[in-house]
Amino acid sequence: MSRARFELALERLRGGDWERFESFASEFLVSEFNSLRTTASPSGDRGRDSYLFRPKDDVTTLLQYSVTKFWDRKVKDTLVRITEEFSNARVLIYVTCQSIGAEADDLKGLAQKKYKLHLDVRDRSWFLDRQFSNTHREIAAENLAREIVDPLLEHRGINQGRAPALSETEQKAAFLYLGLQWEDDDRDKGLTKTTFDALVRSVLRNTSATTRMSSSELFAQVRRLLPTHSSEQVDTRTRSALNRLTKRYIRHHTKEDEYCLTHEEVKRVNEQLVLVEMEDGRLDDTVIDVTSKYLVDSDALQGLSKMTIQPSDVATRVRRVLDQFLLNSGEAFAIAVMEGSYRQLGFNDLNNLVLNDLEKHPAPKKDLTAAVIAAIADIVQEILVNPGEATQKYLRRLADSYTLFAFLQSTPDVQAAVAKMFSHGKIWLDTNIILPLFVEEDLESEQRRFTNMIKLARKAGLKLLLTNGILEEIEGHFKRSSACASCVIDRWVGQIPFLYSKYIESGRSPSQFDKWTENFLGNSRPRDDLRDYLQQEHEVQILDLAELAQKAPAELRDAVTEIWYKRREGRISSAGRDVDTNRLRLLVEHDVENYVGIIERRKHEAPSMFGYSSWLLTLDRTAFRVHNELKTWLTSKVPDSPILSADFLINYLAFGPNRMAVPKEREFTLPVALGLGAMTNLPEELLLLASRIREEAAGIPDRVIRRKIRDGIDKAKRRLGRTALRGHESLEHELLG
């Protein structure tokens, strides 16, 4: 039996499985303790996991089995009880299916110092490390897995909880096997082959040598999964998939014309499904954890205890909305490739998804407050934007599976669809794409969302560029950030600059900000330093578009200029600030140079929407609106938009013509929803909070101070909620600071 299968069995033990865990643990420990006896009777109101056990030949050692997640509280209660009832005890062995590790170190110290007891924690890792230490333990592990894991895999991992954005069991199966196939296949394999191989495997998932499926039923089931497509096309591709899979993964009993999975394939798939089940469970745990923290910390939800709604109900709804968002994102990309226009999903989409979920799964009316609806959207956004290392890869796999599923609903020839996209290109980067690269320098690799995207874009053969105007904006932003760092924060006028905001959010000292910026630029020639850094570290080159923009028709250039002026002036007015006309003029010039210059470059490129090779990558919402607004300004045909969404680029890197250049293991580091809340700035009150925490923590190690600040700001963000932070969601509001 594999380690993963045993690990899943331990992970899936719940409170109601206490007796099962007790039986398993006793079997597992029998080679060390020949006989154990219960030292408590089932009287009183103690739960089963309050029982203590003692080896007959050792009166100083007590064992306690427990499946509770709240192990620290359980251990503390037990330590108190032992001192009251078992004065001879010297050792407590705490046996649990939970993962604890070094987190128990403080408890061990407490047990020794206060209670004169040696605490020995035997957690999930302890069992896993000893799974094969002797035959008796191996049998005990297998018996537990048979009871816990086998029912999960009875129908090859298909259960009602998985892929909640899909309604039919067969759709859920197709979705699951698309994910498995996507992880198995090399990226140079055609997407049409990958998707149909997955569909055939999903249809045959419950077959074996004794439970075969007729050829006619197999073809019919694949057709039912793709009801909008030509039966002839679907059958042709299904037959090709069968030819590829037969012998190695599938057996064809030609006499009866029946198919089934091979025994080896069933075993292999079951092992894969064990890993998927573990990852899915960990995502559910993340959802529950984030939901619980948010509901406790949010000011708007302090009255939650008076409602009938339960945190577990909110977490279930969060998971459904999360999956629906991923499905919608996949559909948006598939539709964009098929029809040539891309709609980026954002905050309002999350709110709408919550409302749609409430229509399908009603809750008591008194619980449907605006605060609860906003909380669900906030929690989904938090998980998407900051998934953590444990869930990043699985979220990426879910996103890819939903995208493949969406493609299949649009066309049976997925490969032909993605082949329409540009296979090489020049991508100009906007300020809001470049600035996060500086912030991410100090993050762990898996947390560098923008950096990972840029790195994989280069691997895919894309050339990354920016204009001198954007470089000037970046230099100006560093100057404003430095000025803000040297200013008393409550006297700063305007929005807190993004770079300084993120620097403080990481827990660093304001007094060290200028020293931190020396990593990127000096005082003598800062713009040259920035250019050198971007070229050397990220292979971003300078290439201006001003001359090309001047060659564009005057009507187009003037219209784009007016649109950008109105948008930027509106932002400044809404923020209650005076207009710096000189800076406004420069920023609009940069916007026009990028937008119009790229349109002019495209006159010699492929005419199809996603066949162009020149693009502007930005998160600026105005940039996405310019194309539609031009329709009311121009008498001539409106040129195709040059704007490329970051979320579109991520999907392009995963599925586009050059996906084979992106290593599969690196593709899973791509963010899931980069455009959603990517450029959030801290409001002034949170920077003041960071300052207060640093003052109160004076004298302790800086790494501890930084952790306290990060934790404090995270909690404050949950308290305020996204609505309170909406004014700080992008750089656009503060570039004129």
Looking at this protein, list some descriptive labels:
737 residues, alpha/beta, Arc Repressor Mutant, subunit A, 7% strand, globular, disordered C terminus
What can be said about this structure in brief?
By secondary structure, the protein is an alpha/beta fold.
Helix content: 55-70%
Characterize the overall form: globular
Counting DSSP E segments of at least 2 residues, the number of strands comes to 13
Query: Structural class, judged by helices and strands?
Result: alpha/beta
Radius of gyration: 29 Å
Identify the strand order in the major beta sheet: 11-10-9-12-13
Q: Residue ranges: pLDDT <50 for 5 or more in a row?
A: 40-47, 726-737
* Mean of pLDDT: 86
Spatial gap, N to C terminus: 62 Å
Count the DSSP helices: 30
Q: Largest sheet, if any?
A: 5 strands, parallel
Strand percentage lies at: 5-15%
Question: What does this entry look like structurally?
Answer:
The chain has 737 residues and is an alpha/beta fold. Among the domains are: 150 residues, no CATH class; 100 residues, Arc Repressor Mutant, subunit A (Orthogonal Bundle), CATH 1.10.10; 244 residues, no CATH class. It is 57% helix and 7% strand. It has 30 helices and 13 strands. The strands form four sheets. The protein has a five-stranded parallel sheet, with helices on both faces. Strands 3-4-5 form a three-stranded parallel sheet. Helix 12 crosses helix 15, helix 24 crosses helix 25 and helix 24 crosses helix 26. The longest helix is centred in the middle third of the chain and has 35 residues. The C terminus is likely disordered.
